[in-house]
Amino acid sequence: MIENVTFHDHKPQALSLYDAVVAGLSKSDKSIPPKFFYDQRGSELFDRICEQPEYYLPTVERRMLSSLAEEIANLTGTGRVLIEPGAGNAAKVRLLLDALRPSAFVPMDISFDYLKSSARALAVEYPWLPIHAACVDFTHSLPIPREVPNGPRLLFFPGSSLGNFSPSEAGGFLRLVHDTVGSGGMMLIGVDTKKSERVLNAAYNDAAGLTADFNLNLLQRMQQELDTDIDPEVFEHLAFYNDEEGCIEMHLVSTEEQTLRLNGHRFEFKKGETLHTENSYKYSQTEFINLVTENGFNEVRHWVDDDGLFAVYLVAVA
Ligand SMILES: C[S@@+](CC[C@H](N)C(=O)[O-])C[C@H]1O[C@@H](n2cnc3c(N)ncnc32)[C@H](O)[C@@H]1O
């Protein structure tokens, strides 16, 4: 038994794939929220996407975090409670732990089995660190387990995950973070920058086809978990940069006219009609600073890599 890790299932209510699929396919512009990508296979596919040369985000962010860890710790101080929504395999936090020396770590994720195994591995590697892993849906709440010690908090949100929210939803999430970290609280956040469309389009259309598999896995998940006749073979991956919106849009395109049956419901797809599965908003420095300032934070410092590909911001509750 590993002594320094506890698990907390907050049973996120918004977790029903069935409800999300019925609601999303009933709309005229069909869509399903990206949180449903992450069953065990989806989490594993995402880890493999992070190793693809075109998907520059994790490589650049990791390099930045490794070289900035001491500087960040000088600005935050040590001994904070460190909270990471969407922690996944907890790879990036490892780059900071020795410098930040948190009093406790609270990794949160919707993919609970995956979170449990990554939290256990982390607990073995860092025996000095109390870990309280929680299954939550961060689009709804950020519940902190009762065992977590008092003291100043730092929320870590890498991977440009904020980009999966629309800018107005991102504002709502930032206010939730603001209330969760409270007075004296800080947030360290990785944000993808606006850049050439060629680089962005390549990042979400890797040559190995892993982003396509990740996108299509949503349909396989529906096939396995729901009473439906959906056939993933008649859909294709589509990802492109929408310059006007400033985001990558990811869709599943129906390659044929088809009717999908689900528990007595029938959903018609025209040939070429899409199911919208994810947005990934990119932020200029001014856009991001305005967003955090409007939602209760002040910038402490920010860093951009030499090629302008990715930015890391440290902000504090105003
Ligand atoms: C894009 S990955 C990023 C993983 C990691 N933070 C990183 O930067 O490499 C998103 C992670 O957030 C989790 N996730 C996605 N939506 C979520 C939600 N609504 N609530 C909690 N976790 C979520 C996924 O399971 C996955 O582990």
Task: Write the CATH architecture name of the largest domain.
Answer: 3-Layer(aba) Sandwich
Which molecules are bound in this entry?
A: S-adenosylmethionine
Strand content: 25-35%
The outline comes out as globular
Q: In the CATH hierarchy, what is the class of the largest domain?
A: Alpha Beta
What is the radius of gyration computed over CA atoms, rounded to a whole number of angstroms?
20 Å
- CATH homology-level superfamily of the largest domain: Vaccinia Virus protein VP39
Q: What's the CATH topology label of the largest domain?
A: Rossmann fold
Largest sheet: 8 strands, mixed
Secondary structure tally, helices: 9
Query: If you average the pLDDT, what whole number results?
Result: 96
Distance between the termini: 42 Å
What is the number of strand segments?
A: 13
How many structural domains can be distinguished in the coordinates?
2
Helix content: 25-40%
Order of helices and strands: EHHHEHEHEEHEHHEEEEEHEE
**Which residues form runs of ≥5 with pLDDT under 50?**
none
Sheet with most strands: strand arrangement: 1-4-3-2-5-6-13-12
Enzyme class: transferase
EC number: 2.1.1.44
Protein name: Histidine-specific methyltransferase EgtD
GO molecular function: L-histidine N(alpha)-methyltransferase activity
